[in-house]
Amino acid sequence: MQFNSEIFRDWERAKEFIDPSNRYIQSYPELLSATQCLVGNFREASIPMVAHLVYGWMPKILSYNRDINQDNSIFESVYAENLNDALAVVDSIEYPPTNNAWVGMSKTLHFLNPKLFPIWDSKVARVLGVSASKMSSRKIYRDYMVFIFSIIEQPFVERIQAEFVRRVGYEISKVRAAEFVLFVIGED
User: Fold this and answer.
1) Are 88 and 79 a contacting pair, CB within 8 Å?
2) Is residue 119 one of the residues assigned to a domain?
3) What gap in Å lies between CA 7 and CA 96, rounded to an integer?
4) What is the DSSP code (8-state) at residue 9?
5) Which of 33, 71, 124, 144 fits as disulfide partner to 47, beta carbons 3.0 to 4.6 Å?
6) d(CA 32, CA 35)
7) Is residue 5, in this structure, part of any structural domain at all?
8) Top-confidence range, 22-26, 117-121, 131-135
9) 93 and 70 in contact (C-beta within 8 Å)?
10) What is the pLDDT of residue 141?
11) SS3 (DSSP) at 98
12) What is this structure's pTM?
């Protein structure tokens, strides 16, 4: 699926959402730290734990399906170094064990490696014109990843990153900055 980068023309709206009193903004670095701690201590066994952390950030309860144990494949996201590695991880997941949904899986992958895996959710999908029925498609998530990587060198991405440091005191990846703009545009 092709996405239109013109959607980013309203990127400056995202700056106002970077508010240190916003719980969503406050909790992000805490979730990253907790993920790093779990990965460091439990390695592959940390995957369902990280998924539970992520679902604490979401309005749904997690059902982690272990019919096929894919924790090792998912854990490879930690070692991914570029877009091709990240796409290979996505391709290795038979089905997302997180409620069989790419929304939860994308968030789990993001916290495991925020530089390579953008968060995929209904707000972002709506902005990009993806229907709810297509949101759970691996292909759509892959297309979204490629799209995000096609724009992360745009000047607005660095400006959003700088705003995070200035306003809330922590750094975010380029992938997170681009995805965050889409999330905020989807808030309307």
Assistant:
1) no
2) yes
3) 28
4) G
5) 71
6) 5
7) no
8) 117-121
9) yes
10) 97
11) strand
12) 0.94
